[in-house]
């Protein structure tokens, strides 16, 4: 007769409670995932760290220095940008991905050429 198993899942105690021992134990998995993603790039993993930093520097120069736009509540402008940067990149990637899918889905349809 099978025995019923009950699992108890508890939420972490703090807001950012990270089990550093577990992360260290699975560090090889992290390295494999990162190296597989950036294997064929010239800069490799450095690009993943460099790109957001250079984006913040450029946006800070354009919007804060040239256009004189402030964060609003006294927050330093680079921090203000860093909070919104993932949303902006996700928005941009969504449209780029959607455009590629649209082209792939309709590649077999006949189209009228210009004569």
Question: SSE layout and pairings?
Answer:
Elements: H1 20-25, H2 27-37, H3 45-66, H4 77-105
Helix pairs in contact: 3-4
Provide an overview of this structure.
This protein has 115 residues and is mainly α. The chain has a domain at 42-105. Helices cover 59% and strands 0% of the residues. The chain has four helices and no strands. It has helices spanning 20-25, 27-37, 45-66, 77-105. The longest helix is centred in the last third of the chain and has 29 residues, at 77-105. The model has no long low-confidence stretch (mean pLDDT 77).
Helix proportion range:
55-70%
Percent in strands: under 5%
Order of helices and strands: HHHH
CA-based gyration radius? 23 Å
Main pleated sheet: none
Return the structural class. Answer: mainly alpha
Care to count the β-strands?
A: 0
Globally, the shape reads extended
User: Uncertain regions: pLDDT < 50 for 5+ in a row?
Assistant: none
What is the number of helices? 4
Give the mean pLDDT.
Answer: 77
End-to-end distance: 76 Å
């Amino acid at each position: 007769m099978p025995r019923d198993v009950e699992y108890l899942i508890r939420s972490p105690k703090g807001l950012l409670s990270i089990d550093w021992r577990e992360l260290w134990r699975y560090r090889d998995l992290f390295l494999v995932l990162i190296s597989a993603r950036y294997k064929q790039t010239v800069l490799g993993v450095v690009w993943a760290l460099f790109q957001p930093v250079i984006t913040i520097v450029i946006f800070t120069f354009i919007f804060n220095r040239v256009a004189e736009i402030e964060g609003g509540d006294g927050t330093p402008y680079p921090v203000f940008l860093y909070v919104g940067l993932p949303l902006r990149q996700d928005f941009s990637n969504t449209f780029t991905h959607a455009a590629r899918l649209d082209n792939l889905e309709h590649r077999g349809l006949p189209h009228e050429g210009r004569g």
